[in-house]
């Protein structure tokens, strides 16, 4: 029986994993959420869009004879990760998550922690500041209740419609970005506060290190809780897991 993988992608690590899977001669599909108009090629056949919740994902696993699922989604894609855990449990499909270790505050960091997006919105209810809001396009409308700030947004795609902020600068660009680039960006826009999800990894870390270098405060949004599952922080760990899981399944 030939292993058939489903990679839940959308991250730099997921793209690298797909290349490793393809290079190893394994067969699989990568699923993308569809929040970016032109996804970067992943190295595997790609499907775009949701599955229709747990039931839809479980049916997809059955219909496509998926033997292994690898969750390489963003650490804040909690609903997709929870759906994967439940759908794999229902279908008996082995699951592993390729996760990023969260960032940890270092000497010189000026972090304040909030538990979620709502906490970040509440924390911005104060005097006007120049704020770089690095939370992803889908969460920007939540912050429109604090119009007193001058905002900086960096988005992969240009907004399809006005974002609803009276004073905002939108930069359309795709990372990863270097420390020099992000330090210059924060300085050029005279940012007073960086708001960021604790995404972890290296792909989006430059802005955090740049804020440290400039002595800027960071409002850090903690990760959502996800039920226990098998995890690894490395592509090599995924490939080792694949070898064990294939043996366990007799494939």
Taking all residues together, what is the mean pLDDT? 92
Assigned CATH class of the largest domain: Alpha Beta
- The low-confidence parts are none
How many structural units, i.e. domains? 2
Description of the structure:
With 251 residues, the chain is α/β, with parallel strands linked by helices. It folds into 2 domains: 4-101 and 225-249, 3-Layer(aba) Sandwich (Rossmann fold), CATH 3.40.50.720; 110-221, Rossmann fold (3-Layer(aba) Sandwich). Helices cover 31% and strands 22% of the residues. It has helices at residues 12-23, 53-63, 78-91, 117-123, 179-188, 206-214, 235-249; strands at 4-8, 27-32, 46-48, 68-71, 95-98, 110-114, 130-134, 150-155, 168-172, 193-197, 217-221, 231-232. The strands form 2 sheets. Strands 3-2-1-4-5-12 form a 6-stranded parallel sheet, with helices on both faces. Helix 2 (53-63) packs across helix 3 (78-91) and helix 5 packs across helix 6 (206-214). The longest helix has 15 residues, at 235-249. The N and C termini lie close together (5 Å).
